[in-house]
Amino acid sequence: MQDSPVNIMQLDRGKMGGSLLHLAFDSEVGVSTGEFTRGIRTTGSLSDHRWGIGTVLTAPALMNQVEISPGEIMIIRPNTELYTRFSGANGYATVFITPEELRAYPGAEEAVVLRQSSAVLPADPVIAAHRVQTFQWLLAQISAESQTMSAGAADFFRSALLDLMIRPVFERVDYRKPRMQQSTAMLVRAVEQYLNDVSDRPVHNSELANRFGMDLRSLQRAFKDEMGMGLIAYQRQKRLHDVHTRLRFGDGLALSEMDTDLLIKDIAKEHGFIHYPRFTHQYQQLFSEKPSHTMRRGRRS
């Protein structure tokens, strides 16, 4: 995202493709948009000083346990932790705006939805579809004119994007409720945070059950509801993702092929993959490439 680093974990199998674009009109307003070809889980705060007002572009998603469809608006307060699950290929668009700029809009002080840390505004399907089409058209125009755009044109596109994404916030008084109990969502987030904190070592499921005072079956069910996969599958997927990150951005930039194989085996063992052939099979299933190919791409970048 534009303002803060966001943790991203690939959920679906296959080679990931996509694009990201960040635009800054000035210090008050910016835009972030992206598309991706596989389902992902994102965690983190979008911004520590600006509101995020956005939508999904292609398919429904789950944001802080609230379902959002393409063209519907989600509002995220600064410094709010956001947990998002995109199932399959999708895209997003987010306008970032400072609290001062947002409060300048008529009706902002009375807007009930701005009292929430995050909320989704339902929309008529026809209006929602038109919103997505308009956003994509505006973005295409901005991209086409970015090198030669005048100050007047930049002000026009800035106003058009703000009107498209922010005006509906002050026209609606209702917002969608979470689809599941917040206690379950908070449990999953706490387990995720714990796994991130100890990501340098494998964690047995019995350790999680003891730490959070729950039996494994309950943890499995909570992750199935929140993530679309059970705890055991999530654990394996996260460990594979951690290995992928190490290979893509970490060690081994100037090693021989033999040294590379040994390093990959060592990294796999560090993350709990003892049986190397099984690890490589699972890795290729998820990322559609061998671990050594990931490391070579890291060397070239």
Automatic annotation (TrEMBL):
UniProt keywords, alphabetically: DNA-binding, Transcription, Transcription regulation
Database matches in Gene3D superfamilies: Homeodomain-like (1.10.10.60)
Coiled-coil region list: none
Per the database record, which ranges form the HTH araC/xylS-type domain? 189-297
- From which domain of life does this come? Bacteria
Keyword check for GTP-binding: no
Tell me which InterPro entries the record gives: AraC_XylS_family_regulators (IPR050204), Homeodomain-like_sf (IPR009057), HTH_AraC (IPR018060)
A Pfam family recorded for this sequence: HTH_18
PROSITE patterns referenced in this protein's UniProt entry, alphabetically: HTH_ARAC_FAMILY_2 (PS01124)
Which GO molecular function terms does the record list?
DNA-binding transcription factor activity; sequence-specific DNA binding
Kindly indicate whether the keyword DNA-binding belongs to this entry.
yes
The protein's name in its UniProt record: HTH araC/xylS-type domain-containing protein
Q: In the record, what lineage is assigned to the organism producing the protein?
A: Bacteria, Pseudomonadati, Pseudomonadota, Alphaproteobacteria, Hyphomicrobiales
